[in-house]
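Supplementary Note 2. Why include the ligand at all?

Several targets in our set were suspected to adopt different conformations when bound, so apo predictions alone were not considered sufficient. For every target with a known small-molecule partner we therefore ran a joint prediction. The input for cytidine-5'-triphosphate is given below.
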Amino acid sequence: MGGGIAAYKSVELCRRLVAAGALVSPVLSAAAERFVTATTFSAVATEAARTTLWDGPEPSPHTTLGQRSDLVVVAPATARVLAAYAMGLADDLLVTTLLATRAPVVLCPAMHTEMWEQPAVRANVSTLRQRGALLVGPVDGPLAGGDTGPGRMAEPADIVAACVARLSGPPEPRPPGATGRTAQGRDLAGLAVLVTAGGTREPLDPVRFLGNRSSGKQGHAVAAEAAARGATVALVSTSGGPWPAGVEVVAVETAAQMQAAVLARSDEADVVVMAAAVADFRPVRAAGAKLRRGDGVPDVVLEATPDILAALVARRRPGQTLVGFAAEWGEPTAGARSKLEAKGVDVVVANDVSAPGVGFDHDTNAVVIVSGAGMELNVGPADKRDVARAVIDAVTAHRSSP
Ligand code: CTP
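The joint prediction is reproduced in token form.
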């Protein structure tokens, strides 16, 4: 772990990794030791914590660690660690171990919003992502010093889920005979795809929220399909794990958090698939403490949430493909067509959520896919992964249409 206040959460991460059956060798940077102690990690991990390249019993701790690890997870990954790793600057045991491993690397950034949004940090993150590192988070939320915003380290449970997914092997290839892909099955190689999934939760008080029945399964299936076909995928989801293998995951809860996470990543994306069921309305104010029955029936006043898709359309860059989803009640084609026009997106995927076995919380779905290029394709009822395949095929068809 690098030196950030989020290092205290790495104790919990370490405990959860051990509980999941991992052998864990903690490595603390010098700055990490200012926040947490090596003794703490030695107590919860399966191996003794290490802090230095020098003076230990092993002549070469970085190569021992790097070579025998199945996965290296850096949590928190501070701006310094990201920069040193991107540059190959082997100046402490942590970065030297990163350079000495061929294992998959999971980076969990944690820093203040201003730092996370710095062009220098963005460039390092982009470099590391292109080299195959998997990013988990950061998420939007409380930061050190009473601040709030994007930059908070992902929750330990989500990091463990991402590590398990990363170790579960390379994304599974598509079955032979499917159309729209190269012989290697990686027809999306070089493409950056951003996917949202799940229903947002808009707080009424600290324990209650307004939500919807979306499970996030369809969005996760789209992310898994895109990753399996070679895309670099970021998944912004309210649904938690299990996460698809090999995708950057950003856990969010509210429409506002989802918007911040999406807009922070949309400029880099060639394709954005808004599969999330974003709440259209939220309480104007969330109570600071739990509302009690004895206080009487609360007056809940609602306001519109930010329209993320509209914000994406407003800042769309040339060559970027935007996909919207529509939950229709009854025959979905007409609604899909009018949404395509009203929203100004390239592709709309619509389903009839009143039909049995369709959409919310099912493993199957039936959709109509319409595009500005005149496509109208009915898919399903079918497994959500098959629907995801059709959605990605529609995106590639749209992108290659004149
Ligand atoms: N969406 C969004 N931001 C919102 C609400 C929705 O980006 N605040 C996106 C969803 O992710 C989805 C599409 O917009 O891709 C759905 O559009 P919307 O008009 O909200 O459709 P429905 O809620 O399905 O339909 P309606 O409200 O018209 O019944």
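Residues 7-167 form a domain with the Rossmann fold fold (CATH 3.40.50.1950). The longest helix spans residues 384-400. Comparable summaries for the other entries are listed in the accompanying table.
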